[in-house]
């Protein structure tokens, strides 16, 4: 094990066993909590134990009679009493055993503040569809290095699809309530209010993540809000003593699941069977392996002549290591608050790479350093200045070899292939053009280094104008981001010492003697039977190329806020102007302008109204579509605050209904200036006649440019428009012991952009069509979120969170060709609908073979193959028989999540399960076809004359017919997403001597187990994707609070 991880493990173990016995003795404190308004007991009051200087730690809630019981460690402990609508009280325990508390009403008390678009809002007054998670939940994600991965399953309506496990990669697709467009369905992501990537943010810097899902929540973002919005809020300083937190962890990661081909004996045996079952040709017999030779592959007496190669053993490590460390400090006074954080991350490589003398190790790795700081200063009693500075530097290294050959080598390379000979030469089988040595590509393909450096700066000045108009505030903000990315490639083509090997068998003419197929060639090695060509070349060092990308973002805004309470009436309003300029390299900046407004009203915390609007500008479109207005409206009714609801409050303490409707837009996936017509220029260069030519028959090129009509423009091109409707119900039972929230949503998206290539032009058009807004979709679904939390004793508590999301889209229109059959249209089906020909049955004999329809994939049929169905009954099987089947393959229609945990004194345990269903995947991993001798476990049960009940057709060699829907399977899965065991130590004399207020040691993991019939753990795309495999993480770490 790595020295650093060993030191951390040793330190954690010593702390755990040395400190456990030093805990102070506890005593029991009892009491009753009542309301100052009616002197009645308050059920569900949060009673939190707070140690001096250590922050909130553990606690309980009052029962139906307002009673509570907690255990106190010492006389200096403080009890904190919190309840919605009441002022928080803190009471020193001292020597008392009975502490009764009377809570006073406080209309300004916030149970929870939710981050919304361009501001914050009390949770009880929120009428939009917003869900949020906290830093504590994110840090339990189990060693993930990407914030997007940490979100998976935590929030209803949010699903993430990971396509690669490569170090430093961020190939993660995020869907909020499914997919409503084919033009970039990803949400708008804002970090501290600015559009920024969240992939390289250290999780320990994050305070909360809010997801805005309906139009009421996203309308303030107008033309960018149709796909939902994710708001990432980072930590800030608070009024407190200086607090120092140090954390670190080591992660052991392994490959989650990849399919493993069988050995060369099984592969060649199945290959022989495939040749025998076809009508053999001379060329196919040359690929046949005689029985006595086949036995030598099985015996492995000569592994270099009869190889049985395990590519995964050559190309993967048993495990790889990640390291992460973070240190942050925070605190402040009423005048100044501060926060600073520094973090380091190293991601190791699961692929087995080595410096074989080429002068470099092409390891896949990622090293990143993060920093973040902010300072909030009261310049005057009414003026506040905030300065934020953040950034990171990341260095990603990887092999520059052909990725298709590298990743396919793990699962799709034949086993009868010598990777390396005893003398150090590398195998290079020239008989197989598609299967060159993957280990050579991995280690000798050169290396690539990407460096990403980003610096983010924000300055915000807030002025309280209450002396002018009570409740009025104004602020201005300026932000400037710089990102520099460089890409260097070294040794970008490898010339490796290798054997070019010609290999094959055949029977000697007129005899049964086996001879080498290439025995007539000069130079054949008579001992090994190979014709080696010694290909010795030298490496090419210092061949570097650079691809530098510089990005700059300037953002500035001015905002005015108004909030007042008049008796039972609460009103607020917000107006904002913002402009953003994005520049890449030295190109002209892309600009976005927005004017935003919001107005809210509630009466007696019972009836709520909210209006949001955004007047957005985008320069992507023509002069008539530069700006548009996107409004939304929302209503809410907190029924639990009505007097008639009082009799049931002991059981159902919270009941609120809300609804919203609004219009938002999206310009994602649409290039600039498509509204302009394009003329193509053609030149005559060096004798070519691409331009104008004159003369007949002796044509002569003209020196003048030839102009031809290119893509025609479309002045009516504009953004997509999404009309969103949402109805939500929030309930709480037994003092929020149980909470159940449900949302039903319906989205109708119109004017979806369709590129010119997808629009069928009529014959009389004379050319291709221009792009147009012709698409239309609908998305329907619902979300359910259930939470349960219970304190059984002062030391024992448990909780459970569960959520379920159903989201189904359907295409209403998408420029389908006229007169196209309904089943061939995209209209009426989901975006990315899987399509295939259909199987009827496996042909069992020669008589059955001639009774079916011939055509595409049927003309070469033999017994043992699938018969294609002539779906449209026209007597021919062709593209008109390809029909919709199953579900899309890039996202699930249904997702569900269950997280549960318990804590006892300082110990805690939690587990999270995440599952999906209604998703279709093609598992047709490459099998052998001619030169590819690859079989897998399921191939052993294919059709044979003696196994006629098989589900799969027999393997083909020269005549490999399509399997239709046989390889399209239900890709449902359940995964053990996270598992954590932790122990927290506090109030320890030993820790006090070290100035440590609390210490936590934990062991957790991510993606630990995968229940599925799929042969590979890959969440998105098809099995032909050439991506780095997904990994399982096993993590050990600590947190120290000073």
UniProtKB/TrEMBL annotation:
Its main location: membrane. It is a multi-pass membrane protein. Residues 1-24 form the signal peptide. It comes from Sediminitomix flava. This is TonB-linked SusC/RagA family outer membrane protein. InterPro entries: CarboxyPept-like_regulatory, EF_Hand_1_Ca_BS, Plug_dom, Plug_dom_sf, TonB-dep_OMP_SusC/RagA, TonB-dep_OMP_SusC/RagA_CS, TonB-dep_rcpt-like. Residues 123-229 form the TonB-dependent receptor plug domain. Keywords: Cell outer membrane, Membrane, Signal, Transmembrane, Transmembrane beta strand, Transport. It is found in: Cell outer membrane.
């Amino acid at each position: 094990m790595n020295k650093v991880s060993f030191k951390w493990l040793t330190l954690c173990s010593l702390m755990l066993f040395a400190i456990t016995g030093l805990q102070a003795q506890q005593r029991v404190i009892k009491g009753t909590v009542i309301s100052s308004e009616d002197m009645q007991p308050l059920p569900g009051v949060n009673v939190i134990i707070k140690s001096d200087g250590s922050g909130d730690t553990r606690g309980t809630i009052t029962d139906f009679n307002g009673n509570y019981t907690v255990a106190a460690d010492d006389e200096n402990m403080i009890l904190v009493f919190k309840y919605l609508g009441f002022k928080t009280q803190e009471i020193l325990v001292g020597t008392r055993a009975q502490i009764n508390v009377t809570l006073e009403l406080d209309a300004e008390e916030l149970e929870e503040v939710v981050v919304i678009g361009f501001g914050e809002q009390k949770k009880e007054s929120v009428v939009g569809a917003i869900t949020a998670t906290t830093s504590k939940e994110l840090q339990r994600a189990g060693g993930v290095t990407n914030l997007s991965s940490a979100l998976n399953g935590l929030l209803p309506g949010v699903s993430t699809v990971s396509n690669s496990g490569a170090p430093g990669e961020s190939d993660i697709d995020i869907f909020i309530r499914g997919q409503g467009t084919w033009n970039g369905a990803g949400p708008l992501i804002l970090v501290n209010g600015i559009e920024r990537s969240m992939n390289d943010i250290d999780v320990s810097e994050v305070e909360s993540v809010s997801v805005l899902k309906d139009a009421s929540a996203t309308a303030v973002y107008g033309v960018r809000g149709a796909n939902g919005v994710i708001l990432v809020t980072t930590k800030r300083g608070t009024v407190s003593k200086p607090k120092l937190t140090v954390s670190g962890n080591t992660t052991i990661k392994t490959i989650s699941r990849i399919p493993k081909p069988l050995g060369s004996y099984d592969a060649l045996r199945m290959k022989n069977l495939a040749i025998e079952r076809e009508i053999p040709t001379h060329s196919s017999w040359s690929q046949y392996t005689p029985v006595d030779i086949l036995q030598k592959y099985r015996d492995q007496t000569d592994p270099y002549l009869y190889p049985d190669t395990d590519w995964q053993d050559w190309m993967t490590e048993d495990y790889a290591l990640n390291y992460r460390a973070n240190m942050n400090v925070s605190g402040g006074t009423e005048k100044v608050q501060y926060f600073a954080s520094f973090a380091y991350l190293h991601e190791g490589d699961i692929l087995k790479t080595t410096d074989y003398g080429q002068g470099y190790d092409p390891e896949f790795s990622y090293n990143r350093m993060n920093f973040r700081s902010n300072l909030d200063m009261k310049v005057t009693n009414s003026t506040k200045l905030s300065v934020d500075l953040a950034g990171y530097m990341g260095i990603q290294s990887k092999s520059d070899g052909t990725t298709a050959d590298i990743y396919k080598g793990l699962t799709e390379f034949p086993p009868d292939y010598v990777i390396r000979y005893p003398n150090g030469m590398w195998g290079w089988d020239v008989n197989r053009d598609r299967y060159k040595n993957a280990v050579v590509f991995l280690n000798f393909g050169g290396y690539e280094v990407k460096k990403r450096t980003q610096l983010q700066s924000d300055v915000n000045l807030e002025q309280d104008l209450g002396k002018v108009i009570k409740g009025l505030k104004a602020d201005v903000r300026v932000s400037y981001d710089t990102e520099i990315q460089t890409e260097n490639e070294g040794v970008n083509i490898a010339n490796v010492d290798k054997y070019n090997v010609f290999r094959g068998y055949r029977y000697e003419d007129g005899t049964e003697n086996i001879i080498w197929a290439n025995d007539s060639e000069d130079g054949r090695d008579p001992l090994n039977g190979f014709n080696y060509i010694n290909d010795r070349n030298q490496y090419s060092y210092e061949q570097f190329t650079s691809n530098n990308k510089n990005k700059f973002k300037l953002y500035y805004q001015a905002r005015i806020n108004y909030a007042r309470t008049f008796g039972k009436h609460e009103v607020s309003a917000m107006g904002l102007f913002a402009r953003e300029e994005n520049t890449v390299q030295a190109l002209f900046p892309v600009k976005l302008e927005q004017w935003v407004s919001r107005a809210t009203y509630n009466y007696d915390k019972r009836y709520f109204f909210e209006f949001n609007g955004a007047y957005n500008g985008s320069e992507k479109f023509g002069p008539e579509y530069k700006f548009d207005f996107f409004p939304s409206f929302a209503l809410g009714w907190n029924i639990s605050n009505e007097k008639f609801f009082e009799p049931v409050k002991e059981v159902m303490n919270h009941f609120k209904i809300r609804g919203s409707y609004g219009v938002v837009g999206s310009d994602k996936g649409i290039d600039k200036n498509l509204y302009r017509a394009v003329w193509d220029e053609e030149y005559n260069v060096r004798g070519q006649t691409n331009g104008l030519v004159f003369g007949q028959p002796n044509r002569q090129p003209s020196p003048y440019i030839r102009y031809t009509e290119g893509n025609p423009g479309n002045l009516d091109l504009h953004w997509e428009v999404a009309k969103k409707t949402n109805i939500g119900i929030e309930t709480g039972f037994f003092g929020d012991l149980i909470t159940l929230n449900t949302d039903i949503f319906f989205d109708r998206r119109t004017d979806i952009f369709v590129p010119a290539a997808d629009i069928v032009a009529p014959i009389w058009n004379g050319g291709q069509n221009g792009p147009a807004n012709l698409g239309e979709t609908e998305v329907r679904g619902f979300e359910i979120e259930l939470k349960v939390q219970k304190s059984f004793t002062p030391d024992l508590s448990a909780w459970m969170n569960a959520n379920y999301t159903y989201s189904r889209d359907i295409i209403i229109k998408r420029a389908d060709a006229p007169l196209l059959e309904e089943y061939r249209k995209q209209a009426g089906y989901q975006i990315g609908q899987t399509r295939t020909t259909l199987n009827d049955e496996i042909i069992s004999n020669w008589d059955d073979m001639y009774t079916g329809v011939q055509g595409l994939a049927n003309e070469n049929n033999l017994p043992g193959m699938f018969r294609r169905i002539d779906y449209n009954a026209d007597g021919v099987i062709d593209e008109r028989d390809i029909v919709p089947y199953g579900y899309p393959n890039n996202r699930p229609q249904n997702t569900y999540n269950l997280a549960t945990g318990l804590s006892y004194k300082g110990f805690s345990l939690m587990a999270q399960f995440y599952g999906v269903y209604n998703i279709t995947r093609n598992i047709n991993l490459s099998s052998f076809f001619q030169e590819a001798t690859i079989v897998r476990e399921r191939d052993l049960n294919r059709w044979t004359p003696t196994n006629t009940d098989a589900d799969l057709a027999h393997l083909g060699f020269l005549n490999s017919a399509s399997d239709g829907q046989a390889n399209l399977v239900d890709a449902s899965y359940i995964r053990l997403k996270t598992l954590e065991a932790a122990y927290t130590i506090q109030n320890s004399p030993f820790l006090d001597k070290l100035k440590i207020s609390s210490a936590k040691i934990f062991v957790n993991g991510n993606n630990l187990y995968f229940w599925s019939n799929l042969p590979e753990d890959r969440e998105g795309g098809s099995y032909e994707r050439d991506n780095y495999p997904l990994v399982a993480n096993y993590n050990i770490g600590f947190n120290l609070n000073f």
